[in-house]
Amino acid sequence: MPAHFTGRDGEHGELIRVLGRPERLTGATAVAVISGTAGVGKSALALQTAHTLTERFSSGQLYVNLRGATPGMTPLTPAQALTALLRDLGTRPCAIPEHPDTAAALLRSLLAPTRTLLPAFRAIQGFWSTCQAEGAGQRVGGW
Ligand SMILES: Nc1ncnc2c1ncn2[C@@H]1O[C@H](COP(=O)(O)OP(=O)(O)OP(=O)(O)O)[C@@H](O)[C@H]1O
Ligand SMILES: [Mg+2]
After folding, report:
1. Ligand 1 close to Cβ of residue 75 (< 6 A)
2. In terms of residue numbers, what domain contains 42?
3. Which tens digit of pLDDT belongs to each residue from 104-139?
4. In this predicted model, what pLDDT tens digit does every residue of 28-64 receive, in sequence order?
5. Rounded to two decimals, what is the model's pTM?
6. Cα 5 to averaged position of ligand 1 atoms, centre (Å)
7. What stretches of the chain show up as alpha helix (H) in DSSP?
8. Is 2 inside a domain boundary?
9. What is the sign of the dihedral through the CA atoms of 135, 8, 47 and 74?
10. Residue 131 needs a FRET pair 20 to 30 A away by CA distance; which of 33, 34, 90, 137 works?
11. What is the Å distance from ligand 2's center to 35 Cα?
12. Structural domain tally of the chain?
């Protein structure tokens, strides 16, 4: 997070509005996607938002770098991303399911009773479509 975050009031406010809603109003997981060209300030905005929402997500924050559009790095596969998240939650390696569907189900079960924010960085193209298919609500950015 930049030492002195400035501007982006509209986008920051929109993210807080979407992600900060009480669960009783959303009835589901809230998802917001920040999109934009390289270096425009996506990560800074995400980190600033996560900082603002610290109290709202009292169980903690779970960061993952999906490594999309990163020179010299291969994007994480869904299975690799799920494995990393489950490991971060303390799941023993031998208890992590190999099949992504099963791993995703375990991740959902572990997170369901919690209030956890999951900032995912460097998502690859197509991520938004996947989020929409999962019932996501809001896209922020596109500048
Ligand atoms: N609102 C802001 N206030 C102050 N500094 C900012 C702001 N937004 C971005 N910066 C600074 O600009 C630089 C680039 O921002 P950032 O890394 O967030 O961009 P990005 O869109 O995530 O880049 P990439 O596409 O490479 O992931 C960083 O040094 C960051 O600290
Ligand atoms: Mg970034």
Report:
1. no
2. 9-141
3. 999 989 998 899 999 999 987 666 566 555 555 555
4. 678 888 988 889 999 999 999 999 999 999 999 999 9
5. 0.85
6. 9
7. 9-19, 23-26, 42-52, 78-88, 100-111, 127-133
8. no
9. positive
10. 90
11. 10
12. 1
